[in-house]
Amino acid sequence: MGIEGVLLREPRIRFLQLGALHIKHIVHLEGGKPPGIQSGAGSVGSGELSSGMEGHSTGVGRVFLLIFCVSGIWAAYITQGVLQETVSTKRFGPDGKRFEHLPFLNLAQNVVCLIWSFIMIKLWSRSRAGGAPWWTYWSAGITNTIGPAMGIEALKYISYPAQVLAKSSKMIPVMLMGALVYGIKYTVPEYLCTFLVAGGVSAFALTKTSSKTISKLAHPNAPLGYGLCFLNLGFDGFTNATQDSISVRYPKTSAWDIMLGMNLWGTIYNMIYMFGWPQGSGFEAVQFCKQHPEAAWDIFVYCLCGAVGQNFIFLTISRFGSLANTTITTTRKFVSIVVSSLLSGNPLSAKQWGSVFMVFSGLSYQIYLKWKKLQRQQKKTM
Fold first, then answer.
1. Residue 69 vs residues 308, 321, 329: alpha-carbon distances, Å
2. What are residue 29's phi and psi, to 5 degrees?
3. Four-residue CA torsion sign, 290, 293, 294, 297
4. Among 120, 132, 158, 187, which one is most buried in terms of CB atoms within 10 A?
5. What is the pLDDT of residue 26?
6. pTM given for the model
7. Residue 157: which pLDDT band, with cuts at 50, 70 and 90?
8. Which of 185, 137, 145 is nearest to 25 (CA)?
9. Dihedral of CA 60/318/68/115: which sign?
C-alpha cells in the first residue's frame, strides 16, 4: 500500500499520502497547501508551503531540524518497507508457514492510524468547525481500501524493489490523463522525466529476476504483480479526485481530519470484507498471529511506523516546504531498494541496477525542474 506516507508532487499535481493508506490531497503546483498543516506559529500559508527549501531563515538549529526530519522519515518508512517485505515473504515458526492474508495489513494499518489521528486531533486541533463531515469520505474510502490492497497483494508475485519502482511511476497516468483528457500541454523536459521513469520500470520488468528472489515469492507472476501495482495507481486516481472535491467544499479540513475520515471508512470496509462472514479471511489472519507472535509484532511495528512517520512528514512540510519533503521521500525510496537488496536477499543484476538509476534519474530531474520553477516564481514576486 505504498508503504510510504509521503507528499509527492507530480507535474502540476501533488499528492498528500497519509501513512501507508495512500490518502491523497490534490493541490495545484502553482500554489495551495495541504489542509490544516500547522507550523509553530499557526497555519502555513500557500506561499510558505510552495517556497520549497528556499525563503526560510538559515542557521545551525534549522540544519539540525532538517537532519532530524530526514532521519525520522527514513527510519520510519525504510523500517516499514523492510517489515512489509518480511511479512509478505517470510516463513514463520517451526511449521514454516507464510502469512497469506496480506489485506489484513491494511486493516491493521487502518485501525492504528485511526487511533493515532484521533489522538492527534484531540492534542493539536484547536477547532473542527468547518471541516468535512466524517460521512463525506465513504466513496474515497472504497478506492482507498481496494487500491492499497492490490499494492500489497502484488508482493506475492513480484519483489519489493519491483513494487517500489512500479509505484514510483505515478507521473505516467497523471500526464496521460492530463494530455489526453484535459488537453494539458507539458514541456519537453517533463516528457523526458516520464520517459526515463517509464523506460526504467519497463526495463526492470523485462530483465530476468534472480532465482533467489523468485524463490522467496509466494506465487511468482510478474505480469499479475505489475498489473496489480498499476491498478493500485488507477484506484489512487479516483481517490485523488474525490479527496480534492472534499477539500474544495470544506477548506477548513485539517490533515488529521482527512487521516481520521479515510481510516474510519477503511476500517469499516476491511472489517466487513475480512470478518463479515464465517469464512472471512480475517479470522484466519488473527489465528495465524496467535500462533506466530513474531508475525503479530512485525505487523504492529509496521503500522506504528506509518503513523509515526506521518508526524515527520507534517513537520518537514511545515518547516521546509513540500519540495524538501519530495526530495527526502524520493531518496528514501532509492535507499529502500538498496536495503532490500543487501539485507533482504534480493540481489539485483547490473541491468536491473541500471533500470533503478534510470527511474531515479527521471524523478531527480523532475525535482530539479520543480526547484527551477519555484525559483522563477519567487523572482516574479520580489
1. 12, 12, 11
2. -60, -30
3. positive
4. 158
5. 30
6. 0.72
7. very high
8. 137
9. positive
